[in-house]
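Chapter summary example.
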Amino acid sequence: MKDFFKFMFASMLGTFLIIVALFFMLIGFVIVIISLSSTEEVNISKNTILQISLDQPIFDRTPKFPFFMEVGKKIGLYDILKNIKKAKSDDNIKGIYLDISYIPTGLAMIDEIRNALLDFKSSGKPVISYSEYYTQGAYYLASVSDKIYLHPEGMILFKGINADMLFLKGTLDKLDIKMQVIRHGKFKAASEPLFLDKMSAENREQVTGLITNSWNTILKGISIARNISTERLNNIADSLTAQTPEEALKNKLVDQLAYKDEFMKDMKHLLNLPEKKEMSVIAIDKYMYAIEKNKKRTLEKNRIAIIYAWGDIVGGNGNEQSIGSEKLSKAIRKAREDSKIKAIVLRVSSPGGDALASDVIWREVMLAAKAKPVVASFGNVAASGGYYIACPATRIIADPTTITGSIGVFAIVPDFKGFFNNKLGITFDNAKTNANSDYIPVTSPLSPYQTLMLQSSVEKIYSSFISKVAEGRHLTIAKVDSIGQGRVWSAIDARKIGLIDDFGGIDKAIEVAAKLANITDYRLIALPEQKDPLEDMFDRLTGNNTSSILEKELGENYKYFKYIKEIQEMKGVQARMPFEIILN
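The structure predicted for these 584 residues follows.
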């Protein structure tokens, strides 16, 4: 009888849990329907202000469906740029209000948005900024404004750029885990955190060069916009005298200190709006659906495909935040074989990843470039495997602050013998049919012969890498080797050494692609096709796509979780860059 009640209550509990799960899934389905129905066109009233807030991580491409557990709605870079351009010619939009404090993205993306705002200002419409505080990236973007407001008790974090790197050697030593690193390239810093406790001289050299170029770009932009010399700006950064609102005002970094209600009243005056009439403000993620009255409906057969390559490079299909070699290759092949597609823009935002997967994608890009113009557009970072897949492109366009290069490869094989033996008391033994049946071992060290064979694989892949870069960029193999060795470059230096062709963002890449294809009228299509909203929701509910939720919860600390996760998932030889500079 006891067993009967035990199983009965267990069954009831299981049924209850299933009902709860189904209830939450039902809520999800309802929200899907609501979200899909909320994309109807929006009418804009006269004297409307376009509000831009960039407190969410910015992807190149707007997600097709933001999951209901994510706070806020994400809008991709291309849609941000497109809607700023749309607002420029929209008679109902009187100006842009930047509501920004912290922008969780790299400098290259901020630069593209800043350039779009500069273009918007050429219409004669103002850009106005207000914030309680500005981080460096936010202030750099806000500096383009006609007038910058700061809360009377706020601050500006203006201090120069610091690049932190996480080193795990001490932890691994305590755990008695040895990481056996086989690499080519004296600058290949991706593996250094596993066997060093600080930067090597070569790594410090390249990182210092990168952040110096980025800082100089920020200084130049602010100097021109605010009419403050770069020397003076460096003095302000060195002395941290932008922290107090009074000092920020005195140093001309801001134009006025004001509370929010004072700012809103002042903005009405600046835009010549009636003081007693309520001001109409629309967020950019809503403005996406506004009717573009002056836009001509085109049925042009000519098309340019924008193919998005975002995230780490992995084998298979990947997901929304990684580049799956199978999925991306299929998209490139589809664009190559479609006669209506006259050119391809390959938008690359990737630190690299699996070397074999990179080569699979490279092949399709190379074939596409033989059939029609392929223009690579680089985002915040397009390095190592990210550069590998782009090197056959007809042209390569990058923002001056894009991080690129990192032409080098490495392999990591952990040796857990000490950890299991000395920390857990676990020992291993094995029987094998051949001398190297245990290749590649993780519970014992590599033998000298196995190390030699793995080094041979790394050297072979590196040789193939530099040969393909030399072919694609019309350089000698010796030249590529001299600028390779795993060294990371800013796009400013990359242009000088022939790794990229010109500066610009995705809009510039589209213009170049159209010119190379000799077309003036065309439609843009985006590839690969995004997941159906219901499929995306199912993947997230079943745990297949939880990174965005973790990123929201962990904030700035997410980068550490992501780094450790990447190390765990590394398989085979890697073509990967170790870091991305985030301004904060």
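To summarize the output: The longest helix spans residues 2-37.
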